[in-house]
Amino acid sequence: MRGVGRLCVMSQPPGPLSQLRRGHEELVLGLLRKHGPLSRGELGKRCGLSRTTLYDILADLVAAGAVVTATQQEAPRGRGRPAETLTLNPDAGQAIGIDFTRRGLHVAAVNLAHEIVGSASEPHAADLPWEGRVELAERLIGSLTGTGSGALRLGALSAIGVGVVGPVEGPEQPEDDEDPPPHPVQLLLHERFGVPVLLDNNTRLAALGEAIWGAAAGGQDVLYLRLSHGVGGGLVVGGSLHRGAYGLSGEFGHITVEPGGARCGCGGTGCLETVASIRAVLDAYRAAGGRADDVPELIKAVQSGDETALWLLDGVGARIGEVLAALCNAIGPSVIVIGGELAATGAPLLDPVERALAEHVMPVSRHRVRLRRATLGEAAGALGGIALVLHESPLLARYPAGPDLAEDPILNQTRTP
Amino acid sequence: MRGVGRLCVMSQPPGPLSQLRRGHEELVLGLLRKHGPLSRGELGKRCGLSRTTLYDILADLVAAGAVVTATQQEAPRGRGRPAETLTLNPDAGQAIGIDFTRRGLHVAAVNLAHEIVGSASEPHAADLPWEGRVELAERLIGSLTGTGSGALRLGALSAIGVGVVGPVEGPEQPEDDEDPPPHPVQLLLHERFGVPVLLDNNTRLAALGEAIWGAAAGGQDVLYLRLSHGVGGGLVVGGSLHRGAYGLSGEFGHITVEPGGARCGCGGTGCLETVASIRAVLDAYRAAGGRADDVPELIKAVQSGDETALWLLDGVGARIGEVLAALCNAIGPSVIVIGGELAATGAPLLDPVERALAEHVMPVSRHRVRLRRATLGEAAGALGGIALVLHESPLLARYPAGPDLAEDPILNQTRTP
Question: Residue B316: pLDDT above 90?
Answer without folding.
Answer: yes
